[in-house]
Prior knowledge:
Aspartate Aminotransferase, domain 2; 7-stranded mixed β-sheet; disordered N terminus
Amino acid sequence: MYKSASYDEPLLNKLAQLSDEECDLFNDIPNSLKRKKKIKIPHLDETQIVRHFHKLSQMNYGIDSGMYPLGSCTMKYNPKICEEISSWSKFYGTHPYQDISLVQGNLKLMFELERMLSEITGMDFFSLQPAAGAHGEFLGMLLSRAYHENRKDFKRNEVILSDTSHGTNPASVTMAGYKLVEIPSTKEGTVDLKILQQVLSDKTACFMHTNPNTLGIFEDEILEISEMVHNAGGLLYYDGANMNAIMGKARPGDMGFDIVHLNLHKTFSTPHGGGGPGSGPVGVKMKLEKYLPIPRISKEDNEYYLDYNAKDSIGKIKGFYGNFSVLLKAYTYISLMGKEGLKETSEIAVLNSNYMKEKIIKSKLYDLPFKKLRKHEFVLSCEKLKQEKNIRAMDIAKRLMDYGLHPPTIYFPLIVKEALMIEPTESESKKDLDNYIDALINIAKENPETIKNAPTNTSIKRVDEVGATKNPILTWNMI
């Protein structure tokens, strides 16, 4: 048995014999903050410690463990080579204050990544600075404001959103000082052109949209939407959270969008979740290029440099130049996949989504509101189960955990009652898809009480999320 004391037993014995006074190296600490009792440190052998932490690691769930079908989050598999390359010392050892001459390789990589993203989206220029998708949205709104104010068009203070917009869109609009105008969708789940025409005015700064939208439906009339917005003097903003559906197939720039943000941590390979790391680069058409944040990465005489000479720039929006490790992984991923590989990624993601959708709705246990054809994701409704068995989307999600599966996004978008929002991505095999489909169908046929008491075989049983939010129990334990 390997005891913890065996590593340096003389030192540990010496420390154990020290008095409280001798241990107190900081005499200026107030008595009220000093420990009243000695710390009770358990004596454990190495085997126990290793098994404890290994068990904790097994309780975690990630894309390496199984399917992670969170709708609109694109929790796809991240190739390990991207992680390996980002761990190379020549990259992670770079300091942001190093002289430009010593980071030419880093600058070249970012310069080329901007060109790659421009080609993929049909935009003219990119900024890699935003640290997340919502940060990119906020930058997009600031660019919109700068554009209109530079034209002395100060009355444009409204941004239009559809009722299927992503949850962060309204927040980004409001933070940028705009007034939010929300419009309802048609019975097909797409933008209502008649209502859009009614709300467009000389106050419209921007129309913020996603295509395909959050229901997974492609806006067939996007060119008409673009023409309407531009004729009204507004800009068209593309939320790129759903870019995994159209890579190599369609480009926002060709649809008429003026501003685009991408989620590199969704679409272009970086571990996603737990608050980061993220990256939300923003691309623009030529007319908005001069407002992009500084510094810009430029090239002259085969040398790369950081260009701060941009009098119309909105300024700096992030310390240094963006989350470089995420940019590196995206560069690696795009280089590995190539044009045809990215195209195939979207084709398989759309195929997987429609395969799951068709098999589930054929069971007639779940409903599919709005247009039938979907892209990379689809949104089911559990309203029928709620009416017939008093089973809600939350219950289905909890019961999936008993099957060893991660639940999908629930209760979003808000226009679908008892929503289950599923995005399988291109990562999953037919076997994985069938397993998830069978679980959803089996759960809908189970005893309602079994479902409402789930999960029963997880390390933590069902938590009262609403109660925990409204009535938090806060404790402070002084040792």
